[in-house]
Amino acid sequence: MDIPLWRFGEALTAGLISHALLTAFVVVALITWVADWMSKTFTRGRLHGSAIAIIIGLLCAYLGGWLTGGNKGLADISLFAGVGLLGGAMFRDFAIVATAFGAQPATLREAGAVGAFSVVFGVVLSFCTGASVAVGFGYTDAVSVATIGAGAATYIVGPVTGTALGASSDVIALSVAAGLVKSILVMVGTPLVARFIGLTTPHAAMIYGGLMGTTSGVAAGLAATDARLVPYGAMTATFYTGVGCLLAPSILYLMVRSLL
Known about the structure:
Layout: H1 5-18, H2 20-42, H3 49-68, H4 82-86, H5 89-100, H6 105-136, H7 142-153, H8 157-165, H9 169-197, H10 202-212, H11 215-225, H12 230-259
C-alpha cells in the first residue's frame, strides 16, 4: 500500500521537530556549505564563507521573527527550535572555553604587558565611545550612560552593569543592542581588514582580541581570516569580558557619575 506524500511529509516534520538539536546541526551545516560555495563562486575566496554564513544566519533570524512575530528569530519556528539551544549561552560558553585549549602557553606569555594593556584599553575605549553616544542621544543620568557604555564593550557587560546599577529594562535592552551591533561589525569586518592591519600572527590576534573584546565577534571573524588564530584572539577577548564586568559597574561608573 502506497503511503501518501503528505503523510510522509508529516512524519518527516514530526521527526525533525522531536530531534530539534540534531536538526539545528543539519541546518547550520547546510548554511555553512552554501556559504562556502558562494564564497568560492562569487568572491573567489576574497570574502570567507564564515562571514557569508553569518550574514545568512542574520537574515534567517530576521525572517523567522517576521513570520512568527516572535523575539527568538528562527527558533520561533517549531521546526528550527533547536537553533535556539545550539546558539544559546551554554553552547556559546562551551565553544569559548574549548577554543582556549588550542592556544600554546608559550605564545600566550609572549603577549605580556602589551596583551594586558590592550584588554584594559579596549574596555575603556569602548565604554567611552558608547557613553558618548548615549549622552549625544539625550541620556543624562549616570546609570543609563554607564549601562549603554558597558553595552558598547560587549552585550554581556551591558546587562551585568545595568543589573548591578539598577538600570531600567529599556536601557539594558539598548546596551544589548549596542553590543550586538559591535559583534556583527567585528564578525563581518575582521576578514576584510585583517590583511591591512597585519592580523596574521598569534601575537597580533591576542592584541586584536583584547582591543575588540566581543568574544563571539572576534572568534567568528578570526575563523574567517585564519582558524589558527581563533584560540589566541578568543583568549584575550574572554579576559576583556571579565575585565569589563569588573570595571564598568565600579570605577567607570563612578567616573561617569562624577562627570554628570
